[in-house]
Amino acid sequence: MEQKIIGENLRRIREANAWTQAQVADLAGISRVAYRNIENGDSTPKVSTLQNIASGAGVKLQDLFVPVRTLKKVRFRALKKMNSRDNILTEVARWLDDFIYLEVLLNDRKDYIFKDLARELSSVPRGDDRAKYAAEQVRKKLKLKEKEPIHDITGLLESCGIKVYPLSLVSSSFFGLSVAEEDGGPAVVVNVWERISVERWIFSAAHELGHLLLHLDAFTVEESAEDKEQENEANVFASYFLMPIIAFKSEWNDTSGLPFVDRVLKVKRIFQVSYKTVLYRLSESAGNSIWGKFQNDYRVRTGKTLSITDEPEALSPHKFQQSPEVLRSQEPDSLSPSHFIEDRLSRLVRNAIEKDKITMSRGAEILKLNLVAMREIVSSWV
Question: What CATH architecture applies to the domain 2-64?
């Protein structure tokens, strides 16, 4: 059984790095045949051999022995095929297991408050109207005022019983995924890679909430290709959840005396969304010509042409922050990582350490920190 676990982990790590068996064997200083037999579970390797393999692959020895829980009720779609898909799912599964372990240990679990709403929405015809209705109902459930912007998306989701995992992955084609309740969720994972704008992090979190509410029937790990209809519905939900119609109209009308670019940028700052979200909302009534107008006016003003990834006056990462190491997206101007702070898991770790339920080193492992960084955090607790 142990040989099988080691083999599965080795294959997953190798494929995530797009290595051949011969390349891993070379990194470990063993023959290709010897490595192949270990990965296939046909031989029992010495600990020293596994140490060499782990060192060559850049992983911890213990990572080779940890059984991999297979997530099944997960919605993980990307714009293109990803070699790291299995690795991401494994990391998310382990994160969820650690989270649930602490919740049970401390008897501190949060109920998911949108179960009934998701059930109701499953019988409503699909489309933009359903997405807008869902956004309205979620805001009512959260007791958000009609004109109230969302200032702390992660805190809001966690208060609803949804676990949030900011994961940094070097990929411009993957923005996030969600896990259903049956698999340890509900949970939302957001790619907080520094080259993705913080506005996109926030929108992705809302987008994945939309999938949890609207598309539970599509939560299956075997599906990896995006469904345009579902993506559009989740986008509409996110847009109206973050920027409700009454609030948007009010703020847009209040800026009527400003030049067009300034109006868009001011409204985007108020709701902490991308300028594209504002233009999308405007295009519903003014037509698609609004996109060209903004690009032209922005170019005339700044002398710059916005690329597909640019976010003018972008938020800095403290607007959506899971650790001090997260850097803001390098976009023209700046939301910060505090606009996206995941803190429930950190809070559970602190409680467990202070109650002597877990060691400091176990807390560091759960938070994916080294022991020195963990000690610094513990010494800062007041």
Answer: Orthogonal Bundle (1.10)
Characterise 161 by phi-psi region: left (phi > 0), alpha (psi -120 to 50), beta (else): left
Please return the burial class of 36, using the count of CB atoms within 10 Å of its CB with bins 0-12, 13-18 and 19+. Answer: middle
| Maximum pairwise Cα distance, the chain | 75
CATH number listed for the domain at residues 74-242: 1.10.10.2910
Q: DSSP 3-state assignment of 22? A: helix
- From CA 186, how far away is CA 179, in angstroms rounded? 5
Q: Determine the pLDDT at residue 246.
A: 93
- Strand stretches in 182-277, DSSP E: 187-191
How many whole angstroms separate alpha carbon 281 and alpha carbon 273?
Answer: 11
Residue 41, phi then psi, degrees to nearest 5: 75, 20
Cis peptide before 186 (omega within 30 of 0): yes
Task: Provide the residue ranges of all domains of the chain, joining segments of one domain with +.
Answer: 2-64, 74-242, 344-380
Those residues of the chain that have pLDDT short of 50 are: 322-338
Question: Could you tell me whether strands 163-167 and 187-191 are parallel, antiparallel, or unpaired per DSSP bridges?
Answer: parallel
Sheet containing strand 163-167, edge to edge, reads: 74-75, 176-179, 187-191, 163-167
Q: For residue 68, what are the β-bridge partners?
A: none
Question: What is the dihedral angle through the alpha carbons of 20, 23, 28, 30, rounded to the nearest 10 degrees?
Answer: 90
